[in-house]
Every structure is written in structure tokens, then in C-alpha cells.
Amino acid sequence: MYAILVYDMGEKRVGKMLKLCRQYLTWIQNSVFEGEITEVKLKELVLKAGAIMEKDEDSLIIFKSREERWLEKQIVGKERNTTDMML
Questions:
Q1: Over 70: is that where the pLDDT of 82 sits?
Q2: Domain containing 28 — which CATH number?
Q3: Distance between CA 64 and CA 80 in Å, rounded?
Q4: CA 63 to chain centre
Q5: What is the pLDDT of residues 15-63, one digit of tens each?
Q6: CA distance 51 to 46
Q7: Which end of the chain has the lower number of beta carbons within 10 A, N or C?
Q8: In total, how many domains does the chain have?
């Protein structure tokens, strides 16, 4: 599946969440990640994120799609990090 993950964390937890999310998805902009991920890996990511989060202060939002091709992405302004993989 293709996922877009967005988080809003307290300042003390941002670094830990950034490090965790980079293990699973591609960083594209400040607290935003995207990429192909299996259902099992996504559940693992959410479980680990839950251990970092303060539930009454932080939030994690995940948008899921079967495939990237079903999403239309429009970028206005500077693209922070391209998701194109060059070999």
C-alpha cells in the first residue's frame, strides 16, 4: 500500500519520531513522510510511534491508498525532498 504520514509532536519527541519514521517511509517535508509500506510494517510503525507519543498532546495522521498511482500530487513552491528514486 502507499501511505502518507503526518505528525505533530511536542518538541522533546520530534527527533525520536523523525528517526522512527525515516526507517519506514521517505521524508518529504517537515513532519511529512510518504512511500510504499506493507500493512504489517505500518502496524509496527504505529505501535512504535504510540510508545513515543503523549496521547493527550501529540497526533499522528495516516492517509492510505492501494497504490501511489491513485494519488495526484501537486507541489506549489519549493519541493523539500523529492521521492524519485534514481539508480
A1: no
A2: 3.30.70.240
A3: 21
A4: 9
A5: 999 999 999 999 998 899 999 999 999 999 999 999 999 989 999 999 9
A6: 9
A7: C
A8: 1
